[in-house]
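S.,

Sequence below, as promised.
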Amino acid sequence: MSYYKLIDGIEKGKTVKVKMTCGKEIVTKYINVFPDTRYDLPDDDAFIESLENIVVTESYCDDLIQRLETAGIDYEIEYCKGCGGRIRQVTYRLIEVVKDQ
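The prediction came back faster than expected:
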């Protein structure tokens, strides 16, 4: 069974922007994704690709790092380019996509 879900460690629902194929056009829509819920993965390459590319950037916080590490989520720590590198930010993927093998 193929599905997508919020990564473990996220406690609140999120609204995300995705692309979907409607007929011969690719449209942009917003969908709500909630914790601890699996959603069927449609056979839509544009949708799947947009899910796999959803990345979140948040301000660095020890609590956030702890939650991501506890859940086994990969993340990167970056320094803000706009402020000359004074502020640390954490970037990670928000959605897990599981495809049938």
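The chain has two helices and eight strands.

Coffee later?
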